[in-house]
Amino acid sequence: MSGAESIGSLFKIPELKRRILFTLGVLVVYRIGAHIPTPGIDGAALAELFAQTKGTILGMFDMFSGGALSRLTIFALGIMPYISASIILQLMTIVSPHLAQLKKEGEQGQKKITQYTRYGTIVISLVQSTGISVGLEAMKSPGGAAIVPEPGWGFRLMAILTLTAGTAFIMWLGEQITERGIGNGISLIIFAGIVAGTPSAIFKSMDLMGTGELSILVVLFLAVLMAGVVGAIVFTEGGQRRIPIQYAKRMVGRKMYGGQSTHLPLKVNTSGVIPPIFASSIIMLPATMAQFIDHPWMQQFSAMMTPGTIVYSLIFIGAIFFFCYFYTAVIFNPTEVADNMKKNGGFIPGIRPGNKTADYIDQILSRLTFYGAIYLSFVCILPDYLIKYFNIPFYFGGTSLLIVVGVSLDTMQQIESHLVQRNYDGFLKKGRIRGRRG
Length: 438
Hints:
Shape: globular
Largest sheet: 3 strands, antiparallel
Strand order of the largest sheet: 4-1-5
CATH topology: Preprotein translocase SecY subunit
């Protein structure tokens, strides 16, 4: 089947067609909202200010919001408050017996945790929008123009209400994509924000090449670097350790069942793109607030948290390692897997069923997670140091590439599953796209 026929088959399945069109429609709504400005802002002065944030934490935040922060639109806070609230709730399930019990209650408990996450998103949005509105009143563009021509509580309340409502609306859009569309809604919104800045970055690079400010050798080097990083991401995301499993023969009635051999696939990067997103969110929250507070100590802290600095790199790598192990422990339980294997008569050759099997799986998973964390850290940090020494007109980092490639693979895998379930060929002639939750 050719590529055109594969794409054409997407619209032969009514449910899949409806989901894809719904997802695209929601993303269009998100991009429209990313261009509606917040009242009371001098857009020209703000654009002049953000022209100086290339390579800073504000530039990174602006990339995740699809340029909404640099224009201070109604979606300026982006989806990061929701991610921060999710992190806090997941961490609290470890120390809070009530949340731990809700987590064990299945779908009903998860609905309650989701409700708490929504409340937490609103609280974090209120805090962030308050800090941004107060900080903007004290800031001026490099030319001396005030960012807020008419400061006061009227502007502050309007900005707080607008930015908080914008984040709540984005959160709702993401949930709608997850429920009624295709792919993970929150990840796709981040994906759309990053990809939206690609055309303008290309045009800016071409303009700089025309004026001689950007060497063609640098552009070629960046293209090769990005291609290499994308190749490494695709290769590693498909890597897995297969643990052999043997099932004993069982007599059910007059028939013999079992006796077959299979394997348990463990991904090298079990947690996917979640650790870099969570790590970025944790760093962005205080760093962005510090950027808008006109105080020498806070400005010094903001400078230390700029991508490409030693302090930022150490904190970012530490956060990636933490969330790699934490999120892997959340989504994969070796004890539960070992118990299910034992109930179905399965065992790993040379390993006793039960606790020994759980310990063996946990040991392998811990080693894989360690290598996965190294891979994520390398991909996310190395480009920051390379780009730091070149005159690049846009924020580029391994985190953005990792999210774009990872979300693309996840979404393609879901589409592939819909096609194969209905006896259509997938996008690949040989084999299926490997899911990250395999």
